[in-house]
Amino acid sequence: MLSLICAAAIAGGVTPAATPVETHGRLQAKGSRIVGKHGKPVSLAGVSFFWSQWIGKYYTPEAVAWLKKDWNATIVRAAIAVDAGGYLTQPEAEMKRARTVIDAALKEGIYVIVDWHSHNAHRYPEAAVEFFSAIAEAYGDKPNLIYEPFNEPLNRVSWSETIKPYHEKVIAAIRNHDKDNLIVLG
């Protein structure tokens, strides 16, 4: 058997291992589980980048490739800052960081969570709609994408009166361009 493997390798018959996205395809919710294209539960492991406006220097293709290779990451999370010097004051810079990490994840064949990173996201629904509309329009046809419109709501914010209506607006904007990819709702 070993000689057959060696012969295939020598003859150029060795193919690279499938990427996580090639293996699992577009993820979906099935009951309480996340499943891949074959209906089987999927477990992903990876790293969240830090707030983009403070340590944006790591939002690079090289960092994503390194995380995949060195840490065996199957998913990364782009924590796109909203306030405190983030998207609200530097939309072009933050959008560029998001696109850079998304493009790198696509190239590496791993998943990417696009996180609208704010404790007060509900205060900026128009900006979130604008941001996620642009992301969904550009990348909604790719199975790699997972949206996270509000990752850390504070306990003092009402789900029914504040957070849920916010999510409904952002989900509608995403679904205008992307009918299938997962949306994580905090």
Annotate the secondary structure layout.
Blueprint: H1 2-10, H2 20-24, E1 28-30, E2 33-35, E3 46-48, H3 61-71, E4 75-81, H4 91-108, E5 111-117, H5 125-139, E6 145-148, H6 159-175
Parallel strand pairs: 3-4, 4-5, 5-6
Antiparallel strand pairs: 1-2
Helix pairs in contact: 3-4, 5-6
Would you kindly provide a written description of the structure presented here, covering whatever features stand out?
With 186 residues, the protein is of the alpha/beta class. It is 40% helix and 15% strand. It contains six helices and six strands; from the N terminus they run H-H-E-E-E-H-E-H-E-H-E-H. The protein has helices spanning 2-10, 20-24, 61-71, 91-108, 125-139, 159-175; strands spanning 28-30, 33-35, 46-48, 75-81, 111-117, 145-148. The protein has a four-stranded parallel beta sheet, covered by helices on one side. Strands 1-2 form a two-stranded antiparallel sheet. Strand 4, helix 4 and strand 5 form a beta-alpha-beta unit. Helix 3 (61-71) packs parallel to helix 4 and helix 5 (125-139) runs parallel beside helix 6. The longest helix is centred in the middle third of the chain and has 18 residues, at 91-108. The chain is globular, with a radius of gyration of 18 Å. The model is unreliable at 1-14 (pLDDT under 50).
